[in-house]
Amino acid sequence: MTFSVQQQNIESLDWVNHQQVAETIKNNGELFFSSYFNHLILAAELLIQLTPNSAVLKQVALCWPPYVLSSSTGELFLIRKLLALCYKNEGVEFLLAHVEHIMPEHLLFLLAQSSASDCIIMKKAFTDTFAVQGYYPGANCSLQVYDDFFTLIINRKSKRLINDHL
After folding, report:
1. Can you give the pTM of this predicted structure?
2. Alpha carbon distance 41, 73 (integer Å)
């Protein structure tokens, strides 16, 4: 049994229907993209339940959306959720193998919830990967800014470890 949420492509409609759909999307873009995102979430949840090590899930976890469809679509949330799933299933090795494809903000968010040792490992891998060029491609921040964030997370985790007995 197969399941599909694929919709008919707008370009395959006749001219009158094409114009009506285009006008509806233009006037109600939020609704259209919210519906689109709901299909993405449904597909991701099904894959997570059926095949959590799916190559498709890993590809989405490592992608950079070229644009955000709408403030309510949550594409970045979906990427972050799938990245956390990959990290949970495969550990720090997954992050190490794909460090150059992971959005630094997602990486830092994930590491803020992980162990200090994983954060130290990833700080070194991140720095080593991008030190040669001196910047992180596609980002507005210098490597020093990311280094400071890694250090902040490590320091917070180290203080927690020292005070865990309290």
Report:
1. 0.68
2. 10
